[in-house]
Amino acid sequence: MNQAVSNTTRLAAELEDIGVKAYLSLQQNKGLLRFLTCGSVDDGKSTLIGRLLHDSAQIYEDQLASLKSDSAKVGTTGEEVDLALLVDGLQAEREQGITIDVAYRYFSSDKRKFIIADTPGHEQYTRNMATGASTCDLAVLLVDARYGVQTQTRRHAFIASQLGLRHFVVAINKMDLLGFDQKVFNDIKAEFAEFAAQLGDIEIHYVPLSALKGDNVVERSSQTPWYKDGTLLELLETIDTRRELSNLPVRFPVQYVQRPNLDFRGFAGTVASGVIKVGDELVALPSGKRSKVARIVTFDGDLPEAIAGQAVTLTLEDEIDISRGDLLSQVENAPILANQIIADIAWMDEKPLQIGQLYDLKVAGKKLQVTVTRVEYHVDINTLAHKRSDSIGLNDMARVALELNEAIAIDPYTLIRDTGGMILIDRLSNATVAAIMAVATSKVAKSTQRFTDYELELNALIRKQYPHWQALDISKLEG
Q: Which residues does GTP bind (predicted)?
């Protein structure tokens, strides 16, 4: 602990060396990586983040003093401090020594800026892990070297891959307790690789480390001469996770309609994919009305173009009806309007899924109603085998068919997250019960667009009260 360089001293020296303006410019132009730590309970996720921050000199002097005081309160003895307390801030977390909610930390190295999401390992809080993974580009998956790959390790890896993460660092922790045995490392590596072969096209790096002692976290360890790859920090600094969203078709979900006066009507949102230029013709969905981009407005002035990830306000040449939740897209590469979706679902509620029950669905700012009409298959987390089952409970993963009460523009989640990722909400409790990733869509039938909430609720009620009754085919309701 006494070998740590004060972050305050380091920052002061850097400012004196290059100047404030040069320092700010350097920080602004660094790339940003969002990553999460996940894995089974007590694998050392919070301690790893604390060690990463401590050894990279990211803890200020007042934070370190507070950390020492907090460590004494929770029973840490001697000169050591409990690094997990940097991210485990809730009283219940400190009392039990576990992570409950997602904790976010920011830090910066010489090469990159980072936002870390420390997620809980307990099965009870898997929903929080999924929340953290939904905004990240890389997963650091912790494995306790003493126990190897656990059920929750597989569950977190599978959920992260379903949520679009293609880059994994498997951090085999607590190697100091096993004498940094290379065979232990190789056995766990082989075990996880066999499981990960079923997750599709993902990139995996393996690193043996000790979060408690600091081996191979920031500095290379003399205890692992057989390990030739980089430390955890070196991997985080160099792995390329960029998704070329600018090369994809234009998707601009409208988050807000700005109308400050009679002379201005703009549509605010973040460009989900593609490049929008002044003069481009866009189509508004679901209305199908077309217009050209007149201006791209930002707080700092108008832009000639906006790329994926930029938050802007668009004005159009024509006065067409566009509301929050609508989607602006290229005319030639517009998504189809669909009211039937095949999707992967991660169930997050204690109450199991009710087939035929009406739920609220939120996607890219739009809210509508949906029913789960059937379960295609249930995923066994240990083997990833597909099983036939209509029962979906807490932490289950499955593929389902959804039927919406209106047609919306949807993309496959693997193509564009913002227009393919959804959440399912219980209409009575208003609780988020599931994360949904669209896989495929079906074009809307004209008659289906005429459904009312009453018709859907009536159909759901019949299915619930009379499960053996043949469910109404609401696509045939006429007049």
A: 39-46, 118-122, 173-176
187 is in an annotated binding site: no
87 CB-side CA count, 13 A: 31
Which of 217, 238, 259 finishes a domain?
Answer: 238
**Per-residue model confidence as pLDDT tens digits over 25-44:** 666 667 889 999 998 888 88
| Residue 225 annotated as lining a ligand binding site | no
CATH number of the domain enclosing 60? 3.40.50.300
> Is the previous residue joined to 120 through a cis bond, with omega within 30 degrees of 0?
no
Compute the CA torsion angle 379, 384, 387, 391 (nearest 10 deg): -20
Residue 474 in any domain: the answer is no
> Quick check: is 412 in a domain?
yes
Question: What are the pLDDT digits (tens) for 349-392?
Answer: 889 999 999 999 999 889 999 999 999 999 988 888 899 888 89
Out of 238, 267, 282, a domain closes at: 238
Q: Say whether 37 counts as a known binding-site residue.
A: no
Q: Is 46 annotated as a binding residue?
A: yes
Q: Is the sign of the CA dihedral 43, 45, 50, 51 positive or negative?
A: positive
Please check if 2 is assigned to a binding site: no
Q: Are residues 377 and 458 both part of a single domain? A: yes
**What is the number of structural domains in the chain?**
3
Domain limits for position 460: 337-464
Question: Is 120 flagged in the annotation as binding?
Answer: yes
Q: Is residue 243 part of a domain?
A: no
To the question of whether residue 309 is assigned a binding role by annotation, the answer is no
* CA neighbor of 31 nearest in space, from 135, 108, 118, 116: 108
User: Is 44 part of any known ligand binding site?
Assistant: yes
Pair (299, 362) in one structural domain: no
Return the pLDDT at 176: 95
- Flag whether 39 is marked binding: yes
128 is in an annotated binding site: no
Reported as a pLDDT band with limits 50, 70 and 90, residue 312 is very high
- On whether both 163 and 193 belong to a single domain, the answer is yes
Give 479's contacts (C-beta < 8 A, 6+ positions apart).
none
Regarding whether 444 and 349 lie in a shared domain, the answer is: yes
Report pLDDT for 78: 45
**Does the annotation flag 174 for ligand binding?**
yes
Residues 315/359, Cβ–Cβ less than 8 Å: no
Higher pLDDT, 7 or 203: 203
Give the rounded distance of the alpha carbon of 76 from its chain centre: 34
Return d(Cα 205, Cα 196) in angstroms, integer: 12
Is residue 118 a known part of a binding site?
Answer: yes
Amino acid 3: pLDDT = 40
Do residues 112 and 49 share a domain? Answer: yes
Looking at the domain assignment, is residue 2 inside a domain?
Answer: no
